[in-house]
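Sample pair:
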Amino acid sequence: MIVYAFQYWDCTLEEMARVEAEKCPAAAPTSQTFGISFDTVRTKSTGCNATAVVEAHIKKWWKEGAAKQTDQTKIADNNFFTQMAYSESDSFACTYHPCSNSAMKLLCYYSKDGNTAQTNLYTNGADTEICADCTANTCVDALCNVAPAAVAPVDALCQGAGNTQKALMTDSLRNQALQMHNYYR
């Protein structure tokens, strides 16, 4: 059975990432439950467009990681790519926090930890084979489009009081990250 699923944005994971990013840690937080991608992103001291910087950094994670991969086998020291490509992970969220005039912390949480995968990030298969394993009429671009069990209330993205204070990522940046993850899967 080959099942590749869309990744969905999880507002609870975003809030967990936000809490950790605001601590401006020197190293990635640890989790027994979730996959984590963490990086210190250098920025200009003034005039930084955080949305553009974060988008470029996530694309860099994928591009550099994909260049190291020759197939679905997990490669050592390719952790950013591993988290993004791991087929068992069906939801994720990212956030960032400026920690100085020249650096911010970028932190993504994934529902499953790709770095604990035994050997393979995914199973190869033809589009028709993948779609045959999806629930009826849920296959889109060779990914099964079935929402995971909700941890938080189901809505389009993270709406409500928490986002009015701009403590979380903008909807535009959430959509960009989500589209990148699903496009590259």
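Confidence is low (pLDDT under 50) at residues 153-157, 161-165.
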